[in-house]
Design goal:
A three-stranded mixed β-sheet has the order 1-2-3. It has a three-stranded parallel β-sheet with strand order 4-5-6. The chain has helices at 5-16, 22-35, 51-62, 75-78, 82-86, 126-134, 150-157, 190-198, 205-208, 214-217, and strands at residues 69-74, 93-104, 110-120, 141-144, 164-169, 201-204. It is of the alpha/beta class.
Length: 218
């Protein structure tokens, strides 16, 4: 699975969830989010979002910005829960997607059925394509944490006027994780070099964040 990367993982997910309606999938996701716990921290995954990220999103929205999630993760997996956690509504989530088709079920109910095919991979060069396709505007502020975000940051930087590009460098093995150039997932190599070359902001998690998770701030 590691060798196939994001696309290979999405192909497995698409195949295993084929034949399910989008409503049934959303219900399954909501149930999983409510009960699943992280194997290392033994906390719900929604408790392990980044407190500085939540504060930044709140700050941006309070100053007139419209905020989006642009992720390599599955869009239908994220949409059921991200609004409650990040304050970002489903229509402002851009992610990878599988194919769906409209059909009338035997009981006469219209539905959208998930097919076992990957429609769009929102990672690497797919991110600016997804932004253009689903948002229709070039960002003026972009935050990433891996090489999968490089093209999104480059696309943002290429716009006119004031621009802000930043990368979170995961350096805290004790409170979170430490990884960069040699990671199987979340690899930060080319984007790290580009940030240093272009003068993008580099956020060192261990050095710069007093608090990582919301529960720590309480």
């Amino acid at each position: 699975m590691a060798a196939t990367g994001e696309k290979g993982l999405l192909q497995i997910i698409a195949a295993t969830h084929a034949g399910m309606t989008t409503e049934a999938f959303s219900k399954t996701v909501a149930e999983w989010i409510a009960t699943a716990r992280h194997p290392r921290f033994n906390k719900p995954y929604t408790d392990l979002v980044f407190q500085p990220m939540l504060e930044l999103l709140t700050y941006l929205r309070s100053n007139g910005f419209k905020t989006f999630i642009v992720s390599g993760g599955g869009i239908e997996f994220m949409r059921p829960w991200v609004e409650g956690v990040y304050g970002i509504p489903p229509e402002q989530v851009v992610g990878s997607s599988g194919e769906t088709k409209f059909q009338i079920r035997p009981d006469g109910t219209p539905s959208l059925m998930k097919d076992p095919k990957v429609e769009f991979v929102d990672d690497g060069p797919g991110k600016p394509v997804g932004i253009n396709r689903f948002i229709g505007r070039r960002p003026i502020f972009a935050f990433g944490n891996s090489d999968g975000d490089l093209q999104m940051l480059q696309w943002t930087a290429a716009g006119s006027g004031a621009r802000f590009m930043a990368i979170v460098h995961h350096t805290d093995a004790d409170r979170e994780y430490a990884y960069d150039r040699n990671s199987q997932f979340g690899k930060l190599d080319k984007a790290l070099d580009e940030a240093n070359k272009r003068g993008w902001l580099l956020v060192d998690m261990k050095r710069d964040w007093n608090t990582i998770y919301p529960s720590q701030s309480k």
